[in-house]
Amino acid sequence: MKISLNKKEKVKSIVEYPFPKEWKLLKLESISKQIYYGITAKAKRNDTGLKMLRTTDINNYKADWANLPFCEVSEKSNNLNRYFLRKDDLIVARAGTVGVSVLINQDLSDTVFGSYLIKVKLKEGISPKFVYYFFQSNNYWKHLHCAQGSTMKNINLPLLKSLILPLPPLPEQNKIAEVLLTVDQYIEEVDKSISKAERLKKGLMQDLLTKGIGHKEYKETEIGKIPSKWRVVRISDIADVKGGKRLPKSHSLVDYKTSYPYIRIIDFRDMYVKIKNLKYLLPETQEVIKQYTISSNDVYISIAGSLGLVGLIPIELNGANLTENAAKLCNLKGVDKKYLVYILNSSLVVKQIYSFTGKAQQPKLALFRIKKIKIPLPTIPEQNKIAEVLSTVDERIQLLKDKRNKLKRVKKGLMNELLTGRKRVKVEV
Fold this sequence. Notes:
Elements: E1 5-6, E2 11-14, E3 17-20, E4 24-27, E5 32-37, E6 41-44, E7 51-53, E8 58-59, E9 62-63, E10 70-73, H1 77-80, E11 84-85, E12 90-93, E13 101-103, E14 108-113, E15 117-122, H2 128-134, H3 138-148, H4 157-161, E16 164-167, H5 170-211, E17 218-221, E18 224-227, E19 231-234, H6 235-238, E20 240-243, E21 261-263, E22 268-269, E23 272-273, E24 279-280, H7 283-289, E25 293-294, E26 299-302, E27 310-312, E28 320-322, E29 326-330, H8 337-344, H9 347-357, H10 367-372, E30 374-377, H11 380-418, E31 424-425
Helix pairs in contact: 5-11
């Protein structure tokens, strides 16, 4: 993707925004025809013919149009028209996903927006797409947080109306929006590829972990039909199950790196451990709980909070301390650790974990119950092949996620430069 930018131009500074001399510094209220709250309505399961967009339907600057609820309203029909969604309406969440917005790209004569949303209808000569992207920028979020603080729970009309935007001439607004839209389209294509790969993995897991590779004869077991040559074993048959350890009283974690990393539930990610935001122990704390470590030969499983998160320990965290909210499967016998991770992430095991914990408000997976989990067990060579196939798909998914993250960083950088005028786009006359 090639984007042509002019050299940085001389800027002047007014208030807190530096911007080019031909740009204008304006409040949102002055460039809008109307800014108002949505309609009060009740969501309904039955088909009323009228749908409603809610705050919960907006995520990552997009709306989940496929799952909008039907609704009933008490407004008279002649007042209802103002609440329908129209092309170029900018809808902002004032609670829930506070401040997140979505741009409406077509008239929706059967869909209204709810009371916890705000509609911004812009005047002629203002690009809705430009404002939509400004609503994703650092300056927009700084405005909201300066007014509401870091624990922002809602926004109101006066706050939104007072938002200050540096606005270039309309042709430049359109060009900036075009550049950012192009990046969004690349991100969307990568998202589709990720979804496709994840569906492939789900299908492969269902087949490989129940049917295996190249089998023709099957048998019924207590966990379902599996290849006749496979065995059903309990976790206690193939591993020791040991718990982690909470911090002793008067001891605490530190943010800076020491020789003693401490792995928490929040660090579990995509069947591995996210190293970026690890916490660490001081030597005196390590000395007290030094026997509660996990190695790169073990498999972790969460037992409190988000139950059943399973994965491997990277080699660089070999010997790290483990939270009391997780357990380790160690001293593995007759099982490939990667195969074990995949089977423990399968629906077959998830169902067993749910049956152990039920609907408790604060469920916890006891160690003795982990030992009782039953899994199908192929031969080691077949375990290796199954794990290899699934690992290949996982590697593809990770590459796509890395590409998406890179594109998001590109978009963020472009927004910081283009929406403030620090860099200019070439506009054809």
